[in-house]
Design brief:
Blueprint lengths: L2 E7 L7 H15 L2 E7 L6 H11 L4 E6 L1 H11 L7 E6 L5 H5 L7 H5 L7 E10 L4 E4 L2 E5 H8 L2 H7 L1 H11 L6 E7 L2 E7 L1 E5 L21 E6 L4 H12 L10 E6 L1 E6 L6 E4 L2 E5 L2 E13 L16 H19 L1
């Protein structure tokens, strides 16, 4: 019996390239042995998330997220709480495509991205859950707070489409003189940081905002976030850190950086300050926020040659952890009804 696959695609991503390439993309998965269908998202809120949940409920074998990091995030949220989760493939057609970089998936040619399935390789990736007073969301790449979050919110959509990553750098340069500091308390596995900070990153991969050395020593699937707290608060210090970042990730040795691995993060501003949380490039509520890592939770199609992976493909106690995870989600749903 042939396996079933569903392509969930954003028709406006990549200057509508996904829609134009769809027949060729479908053929790649059909030729590899999947009965493949496609679903075009609409302007309905969380459209991709709802369709991904339906696919998980109906036991699809593979879900393909075709679009930007926002589409991928919705797909992850749609299947994260399912007891049996389909494998996920991605076809990057967004602006920065950070997750595609982490999985070594070609960018710029959507059919070549689909053909990664032909390598028949996959990796069990960690995902994160962030809880604020207003909501809970899952994320696959980055939770952030502070100056960098503002960049994502303030880049116009048409500028993102036309200029890609350059739009973020241009807006970032414009915002740099406005970099401010927030008194913050961040609790993590090995300690607590209390003090001034301009940025906080809670990363699941090594790629953020087009930079591939944000977390140069990141091991995928290790059950740990890379926590980065940027203590630098003026233009000169920030530019020096950016230079170090571009020089093979040497920023991690700076005294203006707190750099550590942790399975849980609790972040909150001190006093009456406001701190917005950014989840995979979108607004995710205001701090206080709690980030929890779910190790090797979703199987992702990728080109694993050259990746730095946790050698244990699955935690021996993973099934027990997943059962507990589903139970907690069910209890939360019951309480909300």
């Amino acid at each position: 019996m042939r396996k079933r696959a569903r392509i969930i695609y954003n028709p406006t991503s990549g200057r509508e390239l996904v829609k134009k390439s769809l027949p060729d993309i479908l053929k790649v998965y059909e030729d590899f042995g999947y009965d493949t269908s496609a679903y075009c998202t609409t302007s309905e809120p969380l459209c991709a998330q709802k369709e991904a949940k339906r696919c998980a409920d109906e036991a699809f074998d593979l879900v393909i997220a075709a679009g930007g990091d926002g589409t991928i995030n919705e797909v992850i949220n749609g299947i994260a709480i399912a007891e049996k989760r389909p494998k996920v493939a991605i076809i990057p057609a967004g602006t920065t495509n950070d997750y595609a970089r982490a999985l070594h998936i070609p960018r710029g040619n959507l059919v070549n991205a689909a053909k990664v399935i032909e390598k028949d390789q996959s990796v069990f990736m960690d995902i994160g859950k962030v809880s604020t007073a207003s909501e809970e969301r899952y994320f696959m790449n980055i939770g952030a707070a502070g100056f960098l979050s503002e960049v994502s919110y303030e880049v116009p959509a048409n500028m993102k489409s036309l200029f890609g990553s350059l739009a973020y750098f241009a807006k970032g340069a414009e915002l740099l003189p406005r970099v401010g500091k927030v008194p913050i308390r961040v609790e993590y596995d090995e300690g607590v940081y209390e003090g001034q900070a301009s940025m906080v990153f809670v990363a699941l991969t090594n790629s953020v905002g087009g930079f591939e050395d944000i977390a140069p020593d990141k091991t995928l699937g290790d059950g740990k976030f890379t926590l980065i707290i940027v203590k630098a608060t003026n233009l000169v210090e920030i530019m020096r850190l950016v230079t170090m970042l571009m020089n093979d990730g040497k920023h991690i040795n700076s005294p203006n950086i707190v750099y550590t691995k942790t399975s849980k993060v609790i972040a909150e501003p001190i006093g009456d300050h406001k701190l917005m949380i950014n989840i995979d490039g979108e607004y995710g509520g205001n701090a206080p926020a709690t980030f929890i890592n779910y190790r090797q939770h979703i199987e992702m199609v990728g080109d694993i040659d050259g990746m730095k992976l946790d050698i244990d493909t699955r935690d021996p106690s993973m099934e027990e952890k997943e059962t507990d995870f589903i139970k907690q989600v069910s209890e939360l749903e019951d309480q909300s009804q």
